Amino acid sequence: MIHNLLLAALTIGTVLFAVALFQAWRRAPVSPSPEGVAMSAVSNFFDTLGISSFASTTAYLKFRKLVPDELIPCTMMVGYGLPATTQAFIFLNVVKIDPLLLGLGIAASVVGGLVGVSVAAWLPVRPIRLVMGIGLLIAAASFAASALGLMPPGGTATSLPLIPFLIVVAASFFLGVLVNLGVGNFAPTLVLVSLLGMDPRAAFPLMMGSAALLVLVAGVRIIRARPLNMALVLGMILGGIPAVLVAAFIVKSLPIEQLRWGVIAVVTYAAAVMLHAAAAPPPRAAAEPA
What we know:
The chain is mostly helical. It contains 12 helices and no strands.
């Protein structure tokens, strides 16, 4: 029942998103950008493995100056909307996880994302990134020790007792809020479910389902309200979906031991990105006129 409701919500969101995108394209038809195809194929391949595409794509778009800086988030939300939805459909259907945990976790993350729109401006961004980065490094070290046999190995469960269950739901809400600060939820979700004794694969439908719903809802509003580089957006869509399909097959078929080493790599990378962002100086305020 819960699984079917999630699939129905994704389907409705996908249809609304696709209709809005098609209407925008009809107003000014363009061909997909080959550069957008290539960039998206690489980013979405690693995104499906748990390495968020937003950081790498932001860096690339800034370097190439393909869109104005203020339109980078909008471009990514729309360009990666359908690849993110493809990820969600795949992992919701191929990965086993307690349906109630899945439904409540995704709902909590989506609600957190919506709440975060209003409260994000009041949160201390740099300290949060610093704490999250250090925490992810500690988690990566503990996972490596487990993989080397120095600590007990992680679990393979697909459900949780009540207290860990509630921890995952509460954390999903909190991570949904932090998405508005540019703090991705992929690596923290991988860490959380693994530390609680679940199969790392169980994180994928949780994080992909919530990300897809958030992107679809935001994407429809962006398409209708913001100017977009439609050629780049179409290229990102066309490059991203096949890359997602290939990477999802890898995640599904990896033995659990290799997947745990993959989690270590993902979490270490995410920690480095977060600590780098925390260490970056804040943007300078504009000088006041004399």
